[in-house]
């Protein structure tokens, strides 16, 4: 497939379309929101600030040599580029900090899941149409679905791989929403699924991998997966131990009942 060079403004159109659709979906799903409107607005504000900072920080993490070079003469160049992985983690941290300040205990991420998935899919289509300028394409390939972005080289359409993955993840989330689920479970599915995908897909992108063969986005992905693995592995272990203690108590009660004199 030959995509060629398309107008750069197409990417901006899809980016703003992603924001618009994501916002509309979030408003639609507010009936499922476990917190009131005032608290939710503060949470959204914390998410936006954190996402803006995180989207820049991950670019610096992905390109440490460039960042150090630019940092010696700070300028607008340091604000170039954005990364969805950093935006997700930054937004997540921004939400958690906001909740801590307000004293909120409820899980609040489920409301963001479907809007985030759909908006990311739309944004990645824009990245695909932006071609070489976006730098989200994959390495050269001989596979029949390789795409020529205008330089005569067939490359993995990594952006479309992400769209297909997110479509599958959206189907899983939709299926899970049909029945009762603990607050926060959908967000956990999304974060673990998405960052597992990013950990894998980054290996076929022509970007620096300065951290022992992985790049900054993969380093971030590992951090997210380790966090959830430790947190919920520990929770599962504690639940298992509690059940074993319950079974022991039941066994002891049965033994005592048997030895009581008739």
Structure write-up:
- The protein has 262 residues and is an all-alpha fold.
- It has a domain at 9-34 and 106-259.
- It has eight helices and two strands.
- Strands 1-2 form a two-stranded antiparallel sheet.
- It starts with 8 loop residues before the first helix and ends with a helix.
Key descriptive features of the protein:
262 residues; mainly alpha; two-stranded antiparallel ribbon; 8 helices; globular
Order of helices and strands, N to C?
HHHHHEEHHH
General form = globular
Largest sheet: 2 strands, antiparallel
Q: Stretches where pLDDT falls below 50 for ≥5 residues?
A: none
Radius of gyration: 23 Å
| Helical stretch tally | 8
Give me the count of strands. 2
- What is the terminal-to-terminal distance? 85 Å
| Helix vs. strand class | mainly alpha
Helical residue percent band = 55-70%
What fraction of residues sit in β-strands?
Answer: under 5%
Strands of the largest sheet, in order across it? 1-2
Assembly type of the chains comes to single chain
What is the typical, i.e. mean, pLDDT? 86
Any chance you could write out the topology, listing elements then pairs?
Elements: H1 9-28, H2 37-62, H3 64-71, H4 84-102, H5 110-130, E1 147-148, E2 154-155, H6 158-176, H7 185-201, H8 216-259
Antiparallel strand pairs: 1-2
Helix pairs in contact: 1-5, 2-4, 5-6, 5-7, 6-7, 7-8
């Amino acid at each position: 497939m030959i995509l060629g060079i398309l107008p750069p403004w197409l990417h901006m159109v899809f980016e703003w379309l992603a924001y618009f659709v994501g916002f509309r979906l979030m408003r639609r799903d507010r009936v499922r929101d476990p917190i009131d409107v005032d608290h939710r607005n503060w949470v959204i504000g914390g998410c936006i600030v954190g996402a803006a900072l995180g989207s820049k920080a991950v670019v610096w993490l992905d390109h440490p040599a460039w960042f150090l070079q630019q940092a010696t003469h700070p300028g607008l160049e340091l604000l170039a580029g954005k990364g969805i992985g950093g935006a997700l983690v930054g937004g997540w941290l921004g939400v958690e900090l906001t909740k801590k300040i307000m004293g909120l205990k409820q899980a609040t991420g489920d409301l963001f899941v479907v809007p985030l998935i759909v908006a990311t899919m739309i944004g990645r289509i824009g990245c695909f149409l932006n071609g070489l300028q976006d730098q989200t394409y994959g390495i050269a390939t001989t596979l029949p679905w390789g795409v020529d972005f205008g330089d005569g080289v067939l490359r993995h359409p990594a952006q479309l791989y992400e769209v297909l993955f997110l479509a599958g993840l959206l189907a899983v989330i939709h299926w899970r929403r049909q029945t009762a689920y603990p607050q926060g479970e959908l967000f956990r599915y999304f974060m673990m699924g998405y960052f597992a995908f990013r950990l894998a897909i980054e290996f076929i992108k022509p970007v620096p991998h300065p951290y022992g063969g992985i790049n900054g986005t993969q380093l971030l992905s590992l951090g997210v997966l380790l966090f959830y693995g430790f947190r919920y592995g520990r929770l599962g272990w504690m639940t298992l131990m509690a059940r074993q203690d319950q079974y022991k108590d039941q066994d002891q009660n049965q033994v005592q009942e048997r030895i009581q004199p008739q």
